[in-house]
Request: fold
Amino acid sequence: GQSLEQPSEVTAVEGAIVQINCTYQTSGFYGLSWYQQHDGGAPTFLSYNALDGLEETGRFSSFLSRSDSYGYLLLQELQMKDSASYFCAVNTGFQKLVFGTGTRLLVSP
Amino acid sequence: DADVTQTPRNRITKTGKRIMLECSQTKGHDRMYWYRQDPGLGLRLIYYSFDVKDINKGEISDGYSVSRQAQAKFSLSLESAIPNQTALYFCATSAAVGTYNEQFFGPGTRLTVL
Reply:
């Protein structure tokens, strides 16, 4: 079977740092992606890790450890607009994505 | 103009009806995908297509069919809709090659089957 586990909800205050973890068990693995989805909106791409290590894109960073089947998304200097759902997704081959169930991030003033 | 468009944006139908959801893209991508999203379950892949002559089943294809009419168009059909197909449906596209394997999603179609 295929499964990705991530926390259902995370809360934080503006300006803080938050980490959203994702552990996966899939039949194939070519990389781990992160997508952001605001309420009523479409998922939008944030980052992709094919190799172990940290990828940084502005306030967002993503980490992957293939040996641990684990990754995380790190959001720094949180802003109210970061309140959204965040999904990890495994590329199981040929860009077929298996998504986690999502983490709802609530940022308060 | 939006790169990936879906029609209709909302649809209410009755059990047993045939319904088609349409997706068009102007990104010039070869690869197109259909997902459904249910609360608490994330997105699940229904079908995907890597070019006009290539159609593949995803993890939840039962009860659905697709047609790739052109590189830019990929439609999803429910031959006989049932209430548990009530969900939010997303079309997505991606380039055949790319560093980040990024998928670009349409705005979604909210389907309700009564």
User: Anything to note?
Assistant: Residues 32 and 93 of chain B are 4 Å apart (CA to CA). Chain B has no helices and eleven strands. The interface with chain A takes residues 31, 33, 35, 40-45, 48, 50, 58-59, 90, 94, 99-108 of chain B (CB under 8 Å).
